[in-house]
Amino acid sequence: MNFHFLTIFPEMIDNYASESIIKRASESGAISVKTWNIRDYSKNKHKKVDDYPYGGGSGMVMTAQPIYDAYKDMLEREGIEKPHVIYMSPKGRVFSQGVAIELAKHSDIVFLCGHYEGVDQRIIDMIVDDEISIGDYVLTGGELPALVVMDAVSRMIPGVLGSEDSHMDESFMEGMLEYPHYTRPAQFMGRCVPDVLLSGDHKKIEEWRKDRSHEITSKRRPDLLEK
């Protein structure tokens, strides 16, 4: 899986990609993460990438030219014919585990990270395949939500996690929230690990985990049980 970011803040992406699971996955070749600085493609002598909106209004809008040129250069340099291009936007469909599984089927994903009041609609119409939101709130730019999507999608890629079964035990994978986890010591400040987890009876442990998952989901996210 190859992730490409069209952004005016490549350092935000590079810093995140240089740590933890994403770093190890990149080093192993399971994924690749590349950034393309939109500002480098601006034809403005001051390297501006934004302008005032037609029709008036507050804020600035990212211009189409540098985004389009960055996109075309990326396609040429990487030898990609048609990647799946995602624009991170509060107007997009809401991201979920199901969407992460769907996106993991692509070989190349491009994130268009907007700023200011957004990007010129014409560039969205020209190159974007998918608009995605990570929730009903407004953020400063598209980099943070794009990283959220990349992280979740990466976990679906073979070779990214230490165990091939790790992602199957996580919240939402079976439509419910995950069960509680415990580790050593068996007792901490008077609080003990549930006896069933120490029993070695795998069938009872599995039943306990399913019961706890259902209990937690019914209390905190009953909407998941209605789907």
Automatic annotation (TrEMBL):
Its biological purpose is as follows: Specifically methylates guanosine-37 in various tRNAs.
Tell me the protein's name: tRNA (guanine-N(1)-)-methyltransferase
Cross-referenced Pfam families, in alphabetical order? tRNA_m1G_MT (PF01746)
Record SUPFAM superfamilies: alpha/beta knot
Which stretches make up the tRNA methyltransferase TRMD/TRM10-type domain? 1-227
Provide any one GO MF term from the record: tRNA (guanine(37)-N1)-methyltransferase activity
Compartment list: Cytoplasm
**Family per UniProt?**
Belongs to the RNA methyltransferase TrmD family.
